[in-house]
Amino acid sequence: MRPFLRALAVTTCLVTAPLALSVATPSAAVAADYPEGRLPDTAKPSAYRLSLTIIPSKERFSGHTEIDVDLKTGVASLFMHGRDLTVTKAVAVQNGKAIEAVWTQVDPLGVARVDFKAPLQAGKVTLKFDYDAPFGDGPAGLYRVKVGDDWYAWTQFESIDARAAFPSFDEPGFKTPYSVSITTEPGLVVASNAPEKDSVKSGNLVTHNFIPTKPLPSYLVAMVVGPFAVAEGVAPPTPQRSWPLPIRIIATKPNKDKLNYALTETPSIVAHLESYFNQPFPYPKLDQIGSPIMPGAMENAGADIYGDTILLLDDGAPTSQRKTFGMVVAHELSHQWFGDYVTPAWWDDIWLNESFANWMGFRIGNEWRPELNIGVGGLAEGFSAMPTDAMKVGRPIHEKITKNGDIDSAFDGITYGKGGQVIAMIAAYLGDNNFREGVRLHMSRHPYGNATTEEFFGALADAAKDPRVLESMKSFINQQGVPVVDIVRKDGRLIGTQSRYSYYGSTLTPQSWIIPVCLREGSERNCTLMDKTTVDLGAAKPGAIIPNAGGTGYYRFSLTPSDWDALLATGATLPAAEGIAAIDSLWAQFEAGKLPAAELITAAKALADNPDSSVAIGAGERLTGLWGDGMVASETEAKYRGVIGGIYGPRLGAMGFNPANGAYKAEAAELQSRRRGLVSLLAGSAKDTSVRKTLLDAATAYLNGNTNALDQTYLGSGLSIYVQEGGLPAAKAMFERAVTSTQEGFRGRALGAVTAGAKLDTADWVLNTAMNDKRLRNSEKISLLGGLFYSRETRDTAFTWLKANYASFSAGAGIFSAGRIASLPGVYCDAAKADEIDALMRPKVIAAGRGELSFNRTLETMKTCSALKAAKSAEVNQAFIDAK
């Protein structure tokens, strides 16, 4: 799974009379007597037969589920999973005898108890259930969305939402074949994991029968139903696969003209992955499916589901969208092997599933289209996890999970960013061939089965024959924290000392790691496995030290002022990965209180001409955070904006800027990315009047019907400026355009524009009127509220609203977006505000049952920011005043 905005909806439930469940919390007496995490090992499913009637235009769906189960012992009752299912009949069939049962949901997250009217014996039994349930309105369980005049239905089952669609043993360790039948209205497209076997008329409806799947866990089962547009093709045979692989792109009807890009490009990504794993695609077909509200993408076996804007590109798609397509499709398709073919045994090991896929997404995406420079994004994402990992509050990558409510914490930046970077670091140190052989060995040992972290380590050890490297990897995944390596010159040598990085004013428990440190001096690169607190890193040579050569190391470094000056002097020629690493470490040293603020401006100037846009623009984007945190005083605003404009304005001037559709279509992708970044900095942070007017004029023409006036690359910026200049009337009109649009790319950018730079009157209207509009989706409500929090002028208004509405707002959100809701106040850089928020909101967060880790991280972020602000804000403001 590749989440972006996780807004999966989870419905809470109440135990009432058997066979008819509704929403609430189970009694304390019941709650003390059920498994909150793993189910007992009494029962093991061996096969599922799912028969569902799914008519998307209706509010509920119905189903008949049969599960073949092996009982370890005789039982009078079983625990299994189901959430908000109105079960009308439950029967166990054993030795030809039907035994009635009573179904009772005992936990809001979907644990159920099945009580049999006569005891079952050890051995084989078939459990049968008839039920119906409501469709979800967000991407969790079986959900539906109206697009235009038509209703469509999709599933999203990771992590624990298959139980909202059918009774199940909803754990990753239970892999079985699934036989799926879906009954619906004639003329609708129906898809599932396996190829369709046949369809038969059932009265006025049609039943679609699918061949049994390969063994799957419940979270990888998929179903979609609706009047979809479909494009069909094949991935040609490869050295690993002797047959053509059927491929379909499936999307809602308004996207019928956006299917070709994915259909054309998917086969190439499949071929790259088959080459890496040296195995054919593990399933008999591949459907790539778009959903308008999917907050990322999901690797259902043979039936991946993506957010529309990830999968569906038109001819004018900007470079950023093509990068996202390549990375996310490579990520999800790598899961077809690492995650689907070989599945984690329990959620403890999901880190490996996602960390590996994240690394593969950037790697294979880069192989697919090198000119898009996708690979460097993986390193940037790794460094972006470090601020979270450097807190007191947090978790290691590999964390023991004992409760269902804790599973969501495994799907965060630590798993994706840090985990992916640790994989990259170990792969780089071992050597690509050794690491790849370990991965292949792991695949071969567990075909269509389950595996643990230790089993993966065993395969790496057998392939690489270097136990020290595995110990290094374990030191990073089994403990929280970011190492920092302090490098000094002494007696002609480079001496490195490791410690645990901490923010200014924060004291953390000391830790140590086994760090693969690779340094570069000129063209010479030396690597050392740093297994002591202080080590000799080699001879010191004149010139710049690059302490994270290749940028793959998951560590920060600190240098003396003279060595920082020497490194920054190479800014215009520094390789992208090393430039990103340098930016992160430079800012980390400032945030630890050990580097003067003026050096941040020096770095932005030194790196602005780097040939890689991620480096050239990234240093400037970091400066903008000083304004958002309130470190830049209002009276220094003009100087701050002048510095941004002074650095980046001449560079955009030299490139030229025409926002018209396709104006730079023939230009290299990297130049397109650079121009986009420059425009964003100048229009937003610098408030450059010329750039803003250019975008405003283009947006006005676009909204008046000239869609060629504004390229998709600048659509979000142009619409935002249009609303900022037009005030509340423009915000209202933009909102109406957004919620009535069937084009997801426009809808998302238009809604983002409503609150970008909003004033108080717009904030009041959004919170009191727009948030109650039934056309607005849950994930969009979170985004609108987030936009109001981001602005200095409206965040207090947004916080007042959140305090009053937290319970109802979070109840409809779900286990993933709950964390984001809890973290919304984190934009405050104020310790006193953190204490106020803690007192006011902690009871609400606890009552919601999820999001507490994100909430605790939010409070700590506010406090560490406040400490740095108190110590450094005067220095920051003076640096902008003095800047030339």
Short characterization:
Residues 545-863 form the ERAP1-like C-terminal domain. By secondary structure, this protein is an alpha+beta fold. Helices cover 41% and strands 21% of the residues.
Describe the structure.
- By secondary structure, the protein is of the alpha+beta class.
- Helix content is 41%, strand content 21%.
- It has 26 helices and 28 strands.
- A ten-stranded mixed sheet has the order 4-7-6-5-8-3-2-11-14-13, with no helix packed on it. A six-stranded mixed sheet has the order 1-19-20-18-17-16.
- It starts with a strand and ends with a helix.
- Mean pLDDT is 92; it is low at 5-32.
Sequence-ordered SSE layout with sheet pairings:
Elements: E1 2-3, H1 28-31, E2 43-53, E3 60-71, E4 75-81, E5 86-94, E6 97-105, E7 111-120, E8 123-134, E9 141-147, E10 150-156, E11 178-184, E12 189-192, E13 196-202, E14 205-210, E15 223-226, E16 229-235, E17 245-251, H2 260-277, E18 286-291, E19 296-298, E20 303-307, H3 308-311, H4 319-335, E21 342-344, H5 350-368, H6 376-384, H7 386-389, H8 413-430, H9 432-445, E22 449-451, H10 453-464, H11 467-477, E23 483-490, E24 493-500, E25 515-521, E26 524-530, E27 534-539, E28 556-558, H12 561-568, H13 576-591, H14 598-607, H15 613-628, H16 637-655, H17 669-685, H18 689-703, H19 715-739, H20 744-755, H21 760-768, H22 778-790, H23 795-811, H24 817-823, H25 831-848, H26 852-882
Parallel strand pairs: 2-11, 17-18, 18-20, 21-22, 23-28
Antiparallel strand pairs: 1-19, 2-3, 3-8, 4-7, 5-6, 5-8, 6-7, 9-10, 11-14, 12-15, 13-14, 16-17, 19-20, 23-24, 24-27, 25-26
Helix pairs in contact: 2-4, 2-5, 4-5, 5-8, 6-8, 6-13, 8-9, 8-11, 9-10, 13-14, 13-15, 14-15, 15-17, 16-17, 17-18, 18-19, 19-20, 20-22, 22-23, 23-25, 24-26, 25-26
